[in-house]
Amino acid sequence: MDFSNFTPGAASIGGLLIGASGLILFALLGRQAGVSSVAGGLLRFDLRDLDWRLAFIGGIVVGPLVVAFVRGSELPFEITFNPWMLVAAGLLVGFGTRLGNGCTSGHGICGVSRFSVRSIVAVVTFVGVGVLVATLARLGGLS
Question: What is the DSSP letter of 80?
């Protein structure tokens, strides 16, 4: 197993920033930082919520670009999967988000921090399935 990209310091800072952003969003607007619900709200075109939703999603898209620019490097990942597999995965994630009444960020950051049993079960399920799929992909069963 390759641990050359293991960066506990950066990961801890990132985790603290994600948690702080969820706390700030809840404290200021009373909203949970679930990406699927924030993005889904953009599809309703409700002008009262449009500004913070666009800022939230925009930060997710622009943030890595800013970090890469500041570091003077390229984005540290490469998409090598079949595009149709990515589309299928996206649709499955969307279906799972509706079925699970929230996404990994909503359940994992906001739900678990509130000790929501539903969110804890959801996160355990997400992680378990993620480990299974990653293992199958590494063994060549999903290429």
Answer: -
What are the strands, taking DSSP E only, across 45-104? none
* Sign of the Cα pseudo-torsion (14, 32, 100, 103, in order): negative
Q: Tokens 């290429």, residue?
A: 143
Domain residue spans of the chain: 8-139
Whole-prediction pTM value?
0.68
Task: Name the nearest CA neighbour of 28 among 59, 51, 61, 1.
Answer: 51
User: Would you give per-residue pLDDT tens digits along the chain (143 residues)?
Assistant: 667 777 888 889 988 988 888 888 889 988 888 888 888 888 777 778 888 889 988 988 898 888 888 888 877 677 787 889 888 988 888 787 777 777 777 888 888 888 889 889 988 988 998 899 889 888 876 65
Q: What are phi and psi of 73, to 5 degrees?
A: -135, 175
Cα–Cα distance list, 111 to 21, 86, 94 (Å): 14, 27, 18
